[in-house]
Amino acid sequence: xxxxxxxxxxxxxxxxxxxxxxxxxxxxxxxxxxxxxxxxxxxxxxxxxxxxxxxxxxxxxxxxxxxxxxxxxxxxxxxxxxxxxxxxxxxxxxxxxxxxxxxxxxxxxxxxxxxxxxxxxxxxxxxxxxxxxxxxxxxxxxxxxxxxxxxxxxxxxxxxxxxxxxxxx
Length: 169
Known about the structure:
The chain is α+β, with helices and mostly antiparallel strands. The chain has helices at 30-38, 40-46, 135-143, 146-165, and strands spanning 10-13, 19-26, 54-60, 67-73, 79-90, 94-102, 108-119, 124-131. The chain has a single domain (10-165), classed as Alpha-D-Glucose-1,6-Bisphosphate, Chain A, domain 4. The protein is built from four helices and eight strands; from the N terminus they run ββααββββββαα. The protein has an eight-stranded antiparallel sheet. β3 (54-60) and β4 form a beta hairpin. α1 (30-38) packs across α4 and α2 (40-46) crosses α4. The longest helix is centred in the last third of the chain and has 20 residues, at 146-165.
């Protein structure tokens, strides 16, 4: 599986039978992209996945051993939680955390997520590697719609970082 279009700007690759790698470039400095990725007030605006979903809770304790928890409400009114614990935090370069999703038919066991923020000389490349414990868990995550949801979320993240990079008037 691989998707990269000028519309979504998202590349999804499967380098092993347990990994999903999402890559996207942003036209904004790394410090702003990291801020938008890790600050609850910004995350509330972009991290809802597919259109029609809303993020109703966003708790971030951005330190090694700190927990995070997001609650997403779908257009059907059902809510589900995504949560984990931070294992590594190196602003503005890298965040590593666990991730567990409980959404009924699309639940999966704990994954390890590494997010690297690469400085592109004024722009930023985010590479998010999701390592599942099994191929079956990875495949279930793929069936949950991660590609569509990530493309929509990261497009909203682009809007947030663009607004953060505009000088205050």
